[in-house]
Amino acid sequence: MENKTVQKGTATLTVNSKTVELPVLGGTDGPDVIDVKRLYAETGMFTLDPGFTSTGSCESQITFINGEEGILLHRGYPIDQLAENSNFLELVYLLNYGELPSKSEFHDFSRDVTEHTMLHTQMDRFFGGFRRDSHPMAMMVGAVGALSAFYPDAMDVKDEDQRRISTNGLIAKMPTIAARIYKYSIGQPFIEPQNHLSYAENFLRMCFSVPAEDYKPNPAIIRAMDRLLILQADHEQNASTSTVRLAASSGAHPYAAIASGVASLWGPSHGGANEACLNMLREIGSVERIPEFIARAKDKSDPFRLMGFGHRVYKNYDPRAKVMQATVHELMQELDIKNSPILQVAMELERIALEDPYFIEKKLYPNVDFYSGIAMDAIGFPTEMFTVLFALGRTAGWLAQMNEMTVDKTQRIGRPRQIYTGAPFRDYTSLDTRS
Ligand code: ACO
Asked: Does the CA dihedral 293-295-300-306 come out positive or negative?
């Protein structure tokens, strides 16, 4: 990657009567940053920033978010335009290779992905080792990590060809893995991929076809599935993406690094929120009970939070939530689902929360997970599969970010420091002298 930051000035820091000048760097858009790389060498001190609220970890040219204004761009293109006009595979290409593909580039890329969707047959036996009632994300962490045992020849991330093989191969195999996890959890036989179908339709078919009957989805379902993948494809340096970058910074196998992203995504504060959100909407159950849950969300002595609300970066409406909301309405209309109680609760909850001083003051708006669970539910997935679907989309971003880091000459193994507050030096005492 060609580094493009420009020095815009310096920041002066005086500490212990020593003054250091730190470069202030600017990018294409977004806040300038103070480059503290030399701080330790010059002052013997680190910065402390748990949760990375004020810390950038890298330069990136993939995704830009303006959280105050609710803007999300991939390689400069706004998410709503991509969701409306593009498709997931094209977005994968854009994220990973930097530009929208030409017709022939898209043709070749789609063929490369389509022709690598099958899994090694030994992989199928691997699934049989899990309990049928395992959480799908537990199986996904294991299965994606196991890919490195089945495809060890795409290990050298410094080699451009091997990077392409592991990138396109993982995009190809993730839907097959996700569908197998679903089939295994419901005790149905695995369905093999079909090359003539689109990415989204092939995945849906592997999930919902049975040998006795082929699945022919409504086009609205295919569109909604593709849009879900697009909306979840990348979101710059979030927890799972940072996890992937950190894991890969040691030179780990790309499939192992992506498995670490799957693990990080699982948590309810991150990708697990869509599952938690739909469970919450079901628990609320009716519009009459909303005030009770709003009160709980505001009560500091109650750990309950309104799932699908709030975001570390967005202090405005998450632009993905807007697209997702429109997609849900379209889906409900096409599937002729009238008076969905969950959708009614969601819309009323959103209305009430957006008028509530607590949510206004803290700038808590719906995030992408608020509506994505409703869409996945309408498509036919059980809640436990929601985060797996999220991982399917986010794999595009994880790979793009990992590959970008690999060719960024300024990147080294990720190694944060700490402030130590444990016991000071002390001598070991033998067990028989301890009371
Ligand atoms: N419901 C009620 N109060 C909330 C919520 C919520 N959903 N989110 C934040 N707050 C309050 C906090 O209690 C805190 O209040 P305080 O300042 O009085 O202590 C304040 O808003 C700031 O919250 P933090 O937790 O400090 O914000 P942070 O940026 O660390 O967390 C997060 C962001 C994790 C997304 C949070 O808003 C949350 O837990 N939301 C619910 C889970 C969720 O929807 N996650 C999906 C995130 S999007 C994604 O991963 C795709």
From this structure: positive
User: CA geometry: angle at 40 spanning 35 and 41, to 5°?
Assistant: 100
Q: Ligand 1 pocket: which of 312, 358, 398 to mutate (most atoms <8 Å of CB)?
A: 312
Query: Ligand 1 center to residue 409 CA distance, Å?
Result: 35
Output the CA 191–ligand 1 centroid distance in Å.
39
What does the alpha-carbon distance between residue 151 and residue 134 come to, in Å, rounded to a whole number? 25
Catalytic machinery residues: 311, 369
pTM value is 0.93
Residue nearest to atom 15 of ligand 1 (CA): 362
| For ligand 1, atom 49: residue with the closest CA | 270
State the pLDDT at residue 154: 78
3-state secondary structure of 9: strand
DSSP strands (E only) in 52-197: 63-66, 71-74, 77-78
Which atom in ligand 1 lies closest to the alpha carbon of residue 368? 51
Ligand 1 centroid to Cα of residue 272, in Å, is 14
CA nearest ligand 1 atom 44, residue: 308
Q: Residue 34 has what DSSP assignment?
A: E
pLDDT value of position 153: 80
- DSSP code, position 102: P
Q: How do residues 315-327 score in pLDDT, each as one tens digit? A: 999 999 999 999 9
3-state secondary structure of 297: helix
Pocket of ligand 1 contains residue 322 by CB under 6 Å: no
Tokens of 113: 């992905």
Return the half-sphere exposure (C-beta side, CA atoms, 13 A cut-off) of residue 405.
28
284-339: per-residue pLDDT in tens?
999 999 999 999 999 999 999 999 999 989 999 999 999 999 999 999 999 988 88
Residue 274 is encoded by which pair of tokens?
């869509």
CB 27 within 8 A of CB 59: yes
* Residue among 393, 373, 386, 340 at smallest CA distance from 74: 393
- Closest-lying ligand 1 atom to the alpha carbon of residue 270: 50
User: Which helix (H) or strand (E) element contains residue 199?
Assistant: helix 199-208
Q: Best of 238, 278, 309 to mutate for ligand 1, by most ligand atoms within 8 A of CB?
A: 309
Question: For residue 67, what pLDDT is reported?
Answer: 94
Could you give the 3-state DSSP secondary structure of residue 31? coil
Beta bridge partners of 13: 20
pLDDT tens for 42-92 read 999 999 999 999 999 999 999 999 999 999 999 999 999 999 999 999 999
